[in-house]
Amino acid sequence: MGAPVAHRPLPVPEPELTPEAMIERARALRGRLREEQDATERRGHYSQETHKEFVHAGFYRTLQPRRFGGYEFDVRTFYRLAIELARGDPSAAWCLILGAGHALMLASYFDEPAQAAGFGPDGEFCAASVAAPTGTAKSDGSEWIVSGTWAYASGAPYSTFFIPSVLIEGEKTGRARMGLALIPRSQWKMLDDWGAVLGMRGSGSNTIVVEEARLPESHVIRLDMLNVDVSAGTPGGRLHGNPMYAGRCGSFFHGELVSLMVGLGYAAIDEYEQIIRTRKTLFPPIEPRYLNHDYQRTLGLALGLVHAAERLAVHAGELYLDYCQRGWEGGTPFSLEEDLALFASLEHGGRLVWEAVELLFRTASSSGARNGERMQRYYRDISMYRGHMSAQYETAAERLARVHLGLLGSFA
Predict the structure, then answer these.
(1) 194/202 Cα distance (integer angstroms)
(2) How many CA atoms lie within 13 A of 257 on its CB side?
(3) Rounded-to-10 torsion of CA 125, 130, 133, 136
């Protein structure tokens, strides 16, 4: 398997970079991302040139530990970054954020040798991940052997590693069967099968195939992504001395998606405002649409809905850290019910954005539904989110209620 990776601290590219400066870099890219939307959709992911811009801006390192060359900014900052980038191009932002966000998972749940291998000698890291365990891991006594096929691996085109859920062979039933594997790019294949979908065509959500990847023992851990027991702390929390690396998965991951949808909502509002400022009403009194109370009402409703969703997302990032901090300081550990309640709140944030974009799309005029129009693209993109399994708030509501009523155990 080669020589072990040295566990020395890695230099941070820009030690003085602040969260606000990073957010401003994302805002500055908005125009370019919008100009490239068509090309990004056709390609299935953003360009190599844009990837280099993201690397230079430090976006991939937002949540990465400073010990391994990252900026170790907080979850709130990461959600704000998602909002700003998605305002430029929702699907490109989806590709980046879901790839970069899994730095938190690596830094939280894997031991130091796996983290050192994953973040590598230069700190360049991006990893697709899939929660559904559509592959297996088995131990031969010295190594893990992982095989499987995982669809919808968002961020795959620029991923240096893949971190899928797996079923561990040899275990019988229950949570013990669930695991996570850390697989280097050299041991997986990305299929050229993304793009023939309704929306999010530029999200790089390709299928990944793994055929008997051989991994060291540290690269597979027993863990259920949807219900992580943090009552005894986490390897990353102890290693980095930061409670951010001692949290659960579910609410964090959906916070990513809802933040992306908030940015999409603002992008649709920008497009709607451009439409009503440049077009006139069809019937007397003929006037610019932005002076007409019907269009004003629609814009105001959408603004209120998306602002509310933004507040939910950003506050969720703050609450997530509060729960981590409380457990870190010896208080009540971050519980499954808290994770589910935060997840459910975020789902309603996504629903608010869906309602706003649907309202804007159906009142913007039929010309906005043409191929190549941004309003059509935003409607297609938000529809893909609405069909995502994580956006089905009725399902999450039932599980939350069962945990609240004591009908499911802490790790059901």
Answers:
(1) 8
(2) 29
(3) -30
Query: Is the separation of the CB atoms in 125 and 103 below 8 Å?
Result: yes
Rounded distance, CA 47 to CA 95, Å?
A: 11
Is-contact 272 299, C-beta < 8 A? Answer: yes
Residues 204 and 338 in one domain: no
DSSP state of 288: B
Question: b/e for 173-202, b at 16 or more Cβ within 10 A?
Answer: eeeebbbbbbbbbebbebeeebbeeebbbb
Phi first, then psi: what are they for 249, rounded to 5°? -100, -45
Please give the residue range of the domain that contains residue 54.
19-119
Contact, 104 vs 73, CB < 8 A? no
pLDDT tens-digit readout, 300-339: 999 999 999 999 999 999 999 999 999 999 999 999 999 9
CA distance 72 to 91: 25
- In this structure, what CATH number is given to the domain that contains residue 172? 2.40.110.10
pLDDT tens for 377-404 read: 999 999 999 999 999 999 999 999 999 9
- Name residue 248's beta-bridge partners: none
